[in-house]
From TrEMBL:
Residues 1-331 are annotated as: Uridylyltransferase. Has four distinct domains: an N-terminal nucleotidyltransferase (NT) domain responsible for UTase activity, a central HD domain that encodes UR activity, and two C-terminal ACT domains that seem to have a role in glutamine sensing. This is Bifunctional uridylyltransferase/uridylyl-removing enzyme. Modifies, by uridylylation and deuridylylation, the PII regulatory proteins (GlnB and homologs), in response to the nitrogen status of the cell that GlnD senses through the glutamine level. Under low glutamine levels, catalyzes the conversion of the PII proteins and UTP to PII-UMP and PPi, while under higher glutamine levels, GlnD hydrolyzes PII-UMP to PII and UMP (deuridylylation). Thus, controls uridylylation state and activity of the PII proteins, and plays an important role in the regulation of nitrogen metabolism. The keyword Repeat applies. It catalyses: [protein-PII]-uridylyl-L-tyrosine + H2O = [protein-PII]-L-tyrosine + UMP + H(+); [protein-PII]-L-tyrosine + UTP = [protein-PII]-uridylyl-L-tyrosine + diphosphate. Uridylyltransferase (UTase) activity is inhibited by glutamine, while glutamine activates uridylyl-removing (UR) activity. Its EC number is 2.7.7.59, 3.1.4.-. It comes from Streptomyces labedae. Its cofactor is Mg(2+).
Length: 826
């Protein structure tokens, strides 16, 4: 392409730059290189016009521009280098260079320094030194630039023992602040761990000659992240490194990818390569620095050993009795040894003849809490072959040992995965590898979540009779997410096949498949169904089938939730699940669940009801619910607050209560409503509401204020809809992905006593108020509500009846669900 050599002005450069960025045929490294070349030519023209002699002064590109990697909106990092002989001319030249760049609206990071100043600044500021490592001559005195490059590189290599630990600390601080690129839904391509800054840091380590990063795949991974950043700049028109949700579909289209998920998966795979290379490289840096620090002591030992040998040859008996240095290689397992803080292969190990060796080495490393040596993993991968089906018993045991090793399992698993050994052992793993989960509740990709679940499950192996089945189910419970349809259904088929291939017998395979199929059953039932309804408990008992499977499912449920993220598990959820498990265990032991109609009101219920009848107004009670602390010295954990309300029976109670709670920023967890039979001689009927609520933030409001607002809501003097609308207007929601529309369904045969209607919608303040108002319009009675929120998704379940207290006929139930869905879509 012919650049505008004849026109060094901003107009010519801007036009040529625009043509280059619009060339669809040229993208990726060629475009970045061409853009850098075009910019070089323009700046060289500006430089020549301002300093015709060009002696004792040069223009130097540093950082990303120095690497000739200009993205469409990248900063220009420039150093005007001079020998200090003519400061006035240099100052005028700087103005001739910087102002045209600013006039074009390009971001500029600039400095004017002598070589001595540049060297001193680099010594004081690590980021400046890193930028100068990529210094590249653009215009002017080439000898000046070359001398600076030589000096800076020499300084970097001489100071590496001191500077590299500082660089590592910088990387770790950035990772703690920005998170891990390979798991974030809106990642920063540059700053997050495994991003472009980490790739630059690895180049700096290599330049020190102290250690080198694993090169296989590293350049390609870095290039992929740069391609994504290019597309992000082009689609947004901004200099951004944040891959926001609303931009991902456009960026994917710019790169020719199927969708945003395909884009994220490529980003995650690249980040994983860079992050793993960083782990290996920094471990090697640490090893080299440790060996350097002990070298003087080793020289002294070598002299002593030489003296020892001389005395031995001379027949000095004292010398022969001297001690031997400790062995450098300590055996861990067959074919596996520890050396210098890493797990390596024994000299006699034969990966091509020992198919269990990768699992044995991984299990030994995880048990010892040590990393697997990179070269050992690559040697095993080079000679590895698929295990026979079913696996030998030793292979199955080593896999279970690896999965049961706790936190060290994660790093060891990632080392195997980086070299393709996991895909060889478990071919189905490829479908979940680096697969994003578009749910704010999930912290991890699908594959990392599965390993994280196994880590959590390893803490529960003492409380179940078959820990082996628990660990395998933890590893496989979401394996169906790589296939279309319900991932639990697809996962059951895959888990059955994998468990048989691993070598479990038919009965164990059935248990594992059941656990995978129903891994969401306990938490979904406990939080969305009426546990007092016999149909609820019986349906779970039928699905689980045996006490042993129930015990495993309970542990898997908790491990899965803990591995998902903090929003997925709480003391409240744990208490509900434990209650359900207790009831199901009773049914499996032959006891019939008690009928909910037999539950009698408590003395407190009757007291509140009589007070409500006497006053003709709502009466309420707030009481904190806690459970014993996990540690003996800890404080009780809150389960929420029990809110009891008795109100003379009338229309509009559900939306009124839900609306008042929303106004006071109280989150509803469960809600039960029922009519209370009053003692003989007392006229009227009372509706009793027994709810569990939690403060969204801050402290709970006073009961008197809640009661006053409830009175106003029931008589119509409190405009709840208006108050909620004002709040929404005052705090506009952040722009993001468009939420899917609400969906309302009727759960078939979920209860003999009521019709169960399930509402799935985007969570928002006042959602329960809107649902309650819509249900009031359909003239059904709400017996209980079970509210469950995970991230931005609310799943609210309502047990409704006709006025006579019986379930709705099929057609009427469908009609009610349809009207409710229509009302929520408005």
């Amino acid at each position: 392409m012919h650049h505008q050599a004849e026109d060094s002005g901003p107009g010519g450069y801007a036009a040529a730059r625009l043509r280059l960025l619009n060339e669809k045929a040229r993208s990726g490294p060629p475009r970045r290189s061409a853009l850098a070349g075009l910019t070089d030519e323009w700046l060289a023209g500006l430089f020549a016009a301002g300093a015709p002699a060009a002696r004792g002064v040069s223009l130097v590109a540093v950082g990303g521009y120095g690497r000739a990697e200009l993205s469409p909106r990248s900063d220009l990092d420039l150093l005007l280098l001079h020998d200090g002989s003519d400061p006035g001319t240099v100052s005028k030249l700087a103005d001739r260079l910087w102002y045209p760049v600013w006039d074009l609206g390009l971001a500029l990071d600039h400095s004017v320094r002598t070589p001595t100043e540049a060297r001193r600044t680099a010594g004081e500021d690590l980021k400046v030194q890193l930028g100068l490592l990529d210094a590249r001559h653009v215009a002017g005195d080439l000898g000046l630039t070359t001398a600076l490059r030589t000096t800076v590189l020499a300084d970097w290599r001489n100071q590496a023992p001191k500077r590299l630990p500082a660089l590592r600390e910088l990387c770790e601080e950035r990772a703690a602040r920005q998170g891990e690129l390979q798991y974030l839904l809106e990642p920063d391509l540059k700053e997050a761990r495994g991003g472009l800054r980490d790739a630059t840091a690895l180049r700096a380590v290599a330049a020190s000659w102290l250690a080198d990063a694993p090169r296989e795949g590293l350049a390609e991974a870095r290039g992929r992240l740069l391609d994504v950043r290019d597309a992000l700049h082009l689609t947004t028109g901004r200099a951004t490194d944040r891959l926001a949700l609303q931009e991902q579909d456009q960026v994917a289209a710019e790169l020719g990818l199927l969708d945003a998920d395909a884009l994220l998966r490529q980003v995650y795979e690249a980040a994983r390569v860079i992050a793993y290379a960083g782990d290996v490289t920094w471990r090697e840096v640490g090893r080299v620095l440790r060996s350097r620090s002990v070298r003087p002591r080793l020289r002294k030992l070598a002299r002593e050993r030489s003296d020892f040998l001389r005395r031995a040859v001379a027949g000095d008996g004292r010398a022969l009795g001297g001690g031997k240095p400790a062995p450098e290689r300590s055996p861990l397992a067959e074919g596996v040894v520890e050396q210098d803080g890493e797990v390596v292969l024994a000299r006699a190990a034969r990966p091509d003849r020992d198919p269990v060796l990768p699992l044995r080495a991984a299990a030994a490393a995880a048990q010892a809490g040590l990393p697997l040596n990179l070269h050992a993993v690559r040697r095993m991968a080079a000679g590895a072959r698929a295990l026979p089906s079913p696996w030998p018993a030793e292979a199955r045991q080593q896999l279970l040992t690896l999965l049961g090793s706790g936190r060290p399992t994660v790093d060891v698993w990632e080392a195997l995965e980086a070299e393709g050994l996991i895909s060889l052992l478990l071919p189905d793993w490829d479908r979940v590898r680096c697969r994003p989960q578009r749910n704010a509740v999930h912290l991890w990709t699908v594959d990392r979540h599965l390993i994280e679940t196994a880590v959590r499950a390893s803490a529960f192996t003492r409380r179940v009779s078959r820990p082996d089945l628990l660990l395998i189910a933890a590893l496989l419970h979401d394996i169906g997410k790589g296939w279309p349809g319900d991932h639990s259904v697809a996962g059951e088929v895959i888990a059955r096949d994998v468990a048989a291939r691993i070598g479990f017998d038919a009965d164990d395979v059935t248990v594992i498949a059941t656990l995978v199929r129903h891994h969401l059953l306990l938490v979904e039932t406990a939080t969305r169904r009426d546990l007092d309804d016999p149909a609820t408990v019986r349906s779970v008992a039928e699905a689980v089938g045996s006490p042993g499977t129930l015990e495993l499912l309970h542990a898997l449920t908790e491990a899965d939730a803990l591995a998902t993220g903090p929003a997925a598990w709480s003391s409240w959820r744990a208490a509900l699940v434990a209650d359900l498990v207790k009831r199901v265990a009773a049914v499996l032991a032959g006891q019939a669940p008690s009928d909910p109609e037999e539950a009698a009101p408590t003395a407190q219920h009757e007291r509140l009801a009589l007070e409500a009848v006497a006053t003709g107004a709502p009466v309420l009670s707030l009481r904190a619910q806690t459970e014993p602390p996990a540690e003996p010295s800890g404080d009780p954990e809150p389960l929420g607050v029990e809110l009891l309300i008795a109100v003379p029976e009338q229309a509009g109670v559900l939306p009124a209560v839900a609306g008042v709670l929303a106004v006071h920023r109280l989150t509803v967890r469960t809600a039960e409503l029922r009519s209370l039979d009053l003692p003989d001689g007392v006229d009227g009927s009372v509706l009793l509401l027994d709810w569990r609520v939690a403060a969204e933030y801050g402290s709970l409001p006073q009961a008197a204020r809640l009661r006053a607002d409830l009175v106003r809501a029931l008589d119509g003097s409190l405009d709840i809809a208006g108050r909620l609308a004002e709040r929404d207007a005052a705090y506009p929601r952040r722009r993001g992905v468009v939420a899917p529309p609400p969906r309302v369904t009727v759960a078939p045969a979920a209860s003999r006593h009521a019709t169960v209607i399930e509402v799935r919608a985007q969570d928002a303040p006042g959602l329960l108020f809107r649902i309650g108002r819509a249900l009031e319009d359909t003239a059904v009675r709400v017996r209980s509500a079970h509210v469950s929120t995970l991230g931005a998704n609310a799943v609210d379940v309502f047990y409704v009846t006709q006025e006579q207290g019986v379930p709705l006929p099929g057609e009427e139930a469908v009609a009610v669900a349809g009207k409710l869905e229509e009302a929520l879509r408005v």
